[in-house]
């Protein structure tokens, strides 16, 4: 992870390649990048002409040629104007390409993260992939920006090197070295001097700056952990307030920030050492070409002020191109850390997808049955919760799952939903049917109450009267006039009220298959019985699979699946289902 090795560049190519090879806008991206390259080459050409200009202009000044000096000033103004136009245009097209690339990558990563419940499986597997939200929102932005800037900078250095190395080689012929009454000429003297200077500087820079790669990687993780812990407090503010857990939360916040603080100091000290070297290296580069050219100026008088200025400029261009790593090492270290975070995130998603491919799948077939054949459900450690489960459920039938806490009831529901990655067997769902799963704690998205009620399927056409009727039936009529209210509803409503809204969703969407994972556990028994009675009355053709502990739920189901938590199970008929029973809910005061 701390080296620019073959594995790093192989993984980097896997991140870069898709946009440029298979995205719908790949041809536009290629043309824009080609334009950026052309502008870069044009800027190098202008720099080359300005370097040639140095010799003419300074020689005109040295010989007091007024007209020639003013002519050269006009030429410089034209060259500078062209350079500015090219530089501004290059920046514009680079930023345009950057945001388009980031948009495409964001969609790709979001699709991969959300597909097949990957976001959930990554948490279940506990693979150590921290803060995927930051990797998608921030690391992708940094990656596209840094990658383009580094690529363009590297390209600029290469073209600059090739453009100026020949000029510097020719200028080297003017440099003669006096030694014991004789003069010597070393072919390419200035080029070799620039190469030795750059190689020496690069080696020292790499030695000093190498730890910055890991330090920057850690800093991103520590900062993301710190931010996420505060976000968790915001999401669970009521629970923390009831616990009076502010002191403990403060302790956790400060502990995480201490990691940010300590690691940042390590970055400061390491960066300071690197900056000491880089600054000294850069300042010495200003005088170094003059120093190696002084024998030709003082002893042999082979060059004038203009030639000296041209040598200094050409040497600076070649030395700068050769010193790309020295001048960009901090950026390269940050870029390496960002690429590491993205490639490990991508590898984690791919590993989850491999596990999913080896996991049982929800099959779709014509017919009115949900079938479970030889289903075995395990924990990540291999412990079996349910072994070789077989049953069939027809539309309109109702099954209650019971058992001890931790016995696998909720895990079985996850397996029936197809999101639990540990198990074998086959689950078959009728083709075209869209089931609805209600967990114990409903998810209420940010937005208006209307958005909350129509989640997750939405509505083809607005029907506010239908929404109000559903609220009235579940005892939440007080909210009927707040459909357009935008609030953080998960904090505004109690858990019991949230569960009532979840039942309202059921009445709105009318799913053919409904799975309830202790979806009424926060309600008292009369309210729970009333809601189940409402389901039987309003949705007589909906198959219901419930998880619950209360024996009162037996009256609303036809069969009971009992789990013992050790893999064993029994299926029992219930003699007296209360079909059609509907107790009326009293309006909820909330």
Automatic annotation (TrEMBL):
ABC transmembrane type-1 domain location = 31-334
Question: Which source organism?
Answer: Acidithiobacillus caldus (strain ATCC 51756 / DSM 8584 / KU)
**Origin superkingdom:** Bacteria
Q: Name one Pfam family in it.
A: ABC_tran
Q: Which GO molecular function terms does the record list?
A: ABC-type transporter activity; ATP binding; ATP hydrolysis activity
The record's principal subcellular location, in a coarse class, is membrane
InterPro entries hit by this protein: AAA+_ATPase (IPR003593), ABC1_TM_dom (IPR011527), ABC1_TM_sf (IPR036640), ABC_transporter-like_ATP-bd (IPR003439), ABC_transporter-like_CS (IPR017871), ABC_transporter_sub-D (IPR050835), P-loop_NTPase (IPR027417)
Cellular location(s): Cell membrane
Concerning SUPFAM superfamilies, the annotation shows:
ABC transporter transmembrane region, P-loop containing nucleoside triphosphate hydrolases
What Gene3D superfamilies does the entry give? ABC transporter type 1, transmembrane domain, P-loop containing nucleotide triphosphate hydrolases
One GO term describing the cellular component: plasma membrane
- What keywords does the record list, in alphabetical order? ATP-binding, Membrane, Nucleotide-binding, Transmembrane, Transmembrane helix, Transport
Topological relation to the membrane, as annotated: Multi-pass membrane protein
Q: Where are the transmembrane segments?
A: 27-50, 70-93, 148-169, 189-209, 280-299
Q: Residue limits of the ABC transporter domain?
A: 370-583
**Under which name does UniProt file this protein?**
ABC transporter domain protein
């Amino acid at each position: 992870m701390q080296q620019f090795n073959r594995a790093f560049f192989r993984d980097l190519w896997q991140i870069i390649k898709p946009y440029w090879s298979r995205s719908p806008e790949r041809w536009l991206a290629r043309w824009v990048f080609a334009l950026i390259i052309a502008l870069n080459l044009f800027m190098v050409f202008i720099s080359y002409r300005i370097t040639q200009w140095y010799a003419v202009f300074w020689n005109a000044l040295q010989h007091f040629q007024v007209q020639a000096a003013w002519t050269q000033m006009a030429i410089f103004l034209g060259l500078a104007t062209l350079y500015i136009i090219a530089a501004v245009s290059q920046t514009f097209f680079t930023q345009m390409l950057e945001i388009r690339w980031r948009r495409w990558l964001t969609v790709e990563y979001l699709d991969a993260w959300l597909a097949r419940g990957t976001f959930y499986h990554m948490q279940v597997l506990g693979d150590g992939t921290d803060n995927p939200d930051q990797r998608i929102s921030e690391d992708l932005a940094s990656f596209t920006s840094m990658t383009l800037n580094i690529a363009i900078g590297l390209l600029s250095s290469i073209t600059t090197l090739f453009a100026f190395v020949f000029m510097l080689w020719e200028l080297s012929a003017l440099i003669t070295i006096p030694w014991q009454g004789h003069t010597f000429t070393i072919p390419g003297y200035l080029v070799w001097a620039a190469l030795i200077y750059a190689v020496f500087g690069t080696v020292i820079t790499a030695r000093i700056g190498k730890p910055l790669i890991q330090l920057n990687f850690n800093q991103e993780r520590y900062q993301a952990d710190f931010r996420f812990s505060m976000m968790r407090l915001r999401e669970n503010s009521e629970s923390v307030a009831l616990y009076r857990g502010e002191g403990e939360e403060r302790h956790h916040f400060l502990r995480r920030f201490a990691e940010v603080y300590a690691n940042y100091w390590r970055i400061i000290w390491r960066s300071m050492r690197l900056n000491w070297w880089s600054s000294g290296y850069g300042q010495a580069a200003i005088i170094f070409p003059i120093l190696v050219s002084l024998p030709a100026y003082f002893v042999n008088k082979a060059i004038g002020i203009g030639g000296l200025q041209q040598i200094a400029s050409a040497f600076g261009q070649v030395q700068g191109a050769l010193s790309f790593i020295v001048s960009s090492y901090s950026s390269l270290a940050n870029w390496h850390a960002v690429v590491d975070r993205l490639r490990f995130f991508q590898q984690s998603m791919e590993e989850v997808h491999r596990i999913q491919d080896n996991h049982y799948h929800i099959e779709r077939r014509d017919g009115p049955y949900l079938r479970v054949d030889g289903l075995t459900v395990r924990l990540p450690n291999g412990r079996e919760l349910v072994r070789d489960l077989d049953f069939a459920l027809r539309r309109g039938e109702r099954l209650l799952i019971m058992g001890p806490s931790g016995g696998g009831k909720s895990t079985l529901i996850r397996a029936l939903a197809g999101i639990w990655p540990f198990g074998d067997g086959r689950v078959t769902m009728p083709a075209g049917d869209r089931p609805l799963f209600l967990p114990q704690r409903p998810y209420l998205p940010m937005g208006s109450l209307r958005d909350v009620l129509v989640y997750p399927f939405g509505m083809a056409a607005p029907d506010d009267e239908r929404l109000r009727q559903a609220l009235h039936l579940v005892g939440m009529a007080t909210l009927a006039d707040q459909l357009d209210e935008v609030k953080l509803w998960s904090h505004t409503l109690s858990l019991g009220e949230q569960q009532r809204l979840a039942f309202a969703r059921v009445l709105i969407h009318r799913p053919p298959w409904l799975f309830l994972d202790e979806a009424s556990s926060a309600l008292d028994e009369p309210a729970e019985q009333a809601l189940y009675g409402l389901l039987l009355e309003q949705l007589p053709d909906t198959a219901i699979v419930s998880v619950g502990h209360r024996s009162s739920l037996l009256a609303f189901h036809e069969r009971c699946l009992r789990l013992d938590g050790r893999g064993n199970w029994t299926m029992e008929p219930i003699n007296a289902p209360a079909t059609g029973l509907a107790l009326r809910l009293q309006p909820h005061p909330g």
